[in-house]
From TrEMBL:
<feature type="region of interest" description="Disordered">
    <location>
        <begin position="97"/>
        <end position="122"/>
    </location>
</feature>
<feature type="compositionally biased region" description="Basic and acidic residues">
    <location>
        <begin position="105"/>
        <end position="114"/>
    </location>
</feature>
<protein>
    <recommendedName>
        <fullName>DNA polymerase III beta subunit</fullName>
    </recommendedName>
</protein>
Length: 459
């Protein structure tokens, strides 16, 4: 007989549903119970991970495999005991009480086999901070939903670099600062289980490595993430621009004010809706309602700005998420990705087409009005050029120029190629549209001729 509390059934089922990347596919996996020497282990194999839980039990020894709907039937929020009793053949029955009322649920057990065995645990465990769970969850949210040439549906855990990264090809999140017990770069499924409060409330977090899995342990829970040995992943860290002429640093009050005003900015229910950041000594964030044309503005009072003026458009959701992650330093370079950084976290995103709101100076649409903090431009010192005396000697050679930085040249070339590719795409789209228009006109003219409705004609 297998014995466990109703709350355990609820937790196992809820976490198992989150051990799947994307939408669940196919029938729910079975649940395996193994009771040995007063310890009950429960595990569930999904397509992307293996979830296990271990705790003391009052039941006897044995192994039982049941359908997931057994947990659905018996789950609850209390600690009332559930008993799984097996009769003759494959028939079984779940028994429990709720508020003094006895309940039963019949089920057909599944014959245990090799697919129902848990994977072997790591030989060594290494403690990591709880932020590692958040990094896995947030990078998983950033991962792509469709695989292509690169394994963008995966999360990269770089052992030697101590980094977790996720990208969908347009936006990337890089989370640094972890000491991991392996050197290789692992690609693991982007499962949402690490954002669940059950794991977030765990007492300690440890990680381990096996031949096939990255294993994350939180208290009595373990999640085995299958390592993708064949997938390719882009150099996400290398995509971060090394040089940015314009840098904006928001203090905590400005970031909090902007996030508080965020629900009132247009585009909350529109995917990839642009907002404009206008940097000119201060910072103004503008959003435009596509339906009404109304423009809302948030003026930040205390940003620190260095570098030339800039005006960029980014995805509304990406900007809000970057601020929520504490990435309050914004680095802007013309023709390059926009970088939000802070606290060991970096969000890199492609700039969108300029928002029409950027060209509008609204009169009274400000949400958080405040005077812009402007850093005065230094007045250049006036100098009078004086022709040096040669005293009959040849003029000295000009001083050597600074050597060319190949990284800067490479980034400039990459930006130029990206701009050329975008322009080529717009040209192809325009040509296709032109051909469609000409084809439509030809069809209309043919129809008119067939009806004898040419110029000056009549039916």
């Amino acid at each position: 007989m297998i014995v466990f509390p109703r709350e355990r059934a609820r937790s196992v089922r809820a976490l198992a549903r989150k051990c799947v990347a994307g939408r669940p596919r196919g029938p729910a996996p079975p649940v395996v119970f193994e009771s040995r020497a007063g310890t009950l282990s429960v595990w569930v194999h999904t397509a992307d991970a293996v979830l296990t839980h271990t705790a003391p039990t009052a039941g006897g020894d044995g192994v039982l495999v049941v359908p997931m709907d057994v947990l659905t039937a018996v789950e609850g929020t209390g600690d009332e005991a559930v008993e799984l009793v097996v009769g003759e053949g494959l028939r079984g029955e779940a028994r429990w009480s709720a508020r003094g009322v006895s309940h039963t649920h019949p089920f057909d057990r599944i014959e245990p086999g090799k697919p129902h065995r848990p994977p072997p645990p790591p030989d060594d465990w290494h403690p990591v901070p709880p932020a590692f769970l958040t990094a896995l969850h947030e990078c998983g949210r950033t991962a792509g939903r469709e695989a292509g040439r690169f394994a963008l549906t995966r999360v990269q855990v770089a052992g030697s670099a101590g980094r977790v990264a996720g990208t969908d090809g347009r936006t990337a999140l890089i989370w640094d600062g972890f000491a991991l017990p392996f050197d290789e770069d692992l690609l693991v499924p982007a499962v949402p289980v690490f954002g669940d409060q059950t794991l977030a409330a765990g007492p300690a977090v440890r990680v381990g490595r096996t031949a096939d899995h990255l294993v994350v342990e939180v208290g009595p829970w373990r999640v085995f993430l299958t390592a993708d040995a064949t997938g390719r992943y882009p150099d996400v860290a290398g995509a971060v621009p090394k040089h940015a002429p314009t840098v904006v640093t928001l203090d905590s009050a400005d970031a909090a004010a902007l996030l508080a005003a965020w629900p009132r900015l247009p585009g909350a229910d529109v995917a990839c809706h642009p907002v404009t950041l206008a940097v000119d000594g201060g910072v103004v964030v503008r959003g435009r309602d596509e339906a009404t044309g109304a423009v809302e503005t948030v003026r930040l009072a205390r940003p620190a700005v260095t570098g030339p003026t800039a005006r960029i458009a980014v995805d509304r959701q990406v900007l809000a998420r970057a601020l929520a992650l504490g990435c309050t330093t914004v680095r802007v370079a013309d023709g390059r990705p926009v970088v939000f950084a802070g606290g060991g976290r970096t969000v890199v995103t492609m700039a969108l087409d300029p928002d029409p709101a950027a060209e509008v100076e609204p009169a009274t649409t400000g949400i958080a009005a405040a005077d812009l903090v402007r850093i005065p431009e230094p007045v250049p010192e006036r100098r009078i050029a004086v022709r040096p005396a040669s005293n009959g000697h040849a003029a000295p050679d000009p001083p050597p120029t600074d050597p060319v930085d190949p990284v800067v040249v490479a980034e400039d070339l990459r930006a130029a190629l990206a701009d050329a590719a975008a322009k080529a795409g717009r040209l192809v789209a325009a040509l296709k549209s032109r051909r469609k228009e000409q084809k439509a006109l030809t069809q209309v003219w043919s129809s008119l001729k067939a009806l004898h409705l040419g110029p000056g004609g009549s039916p």
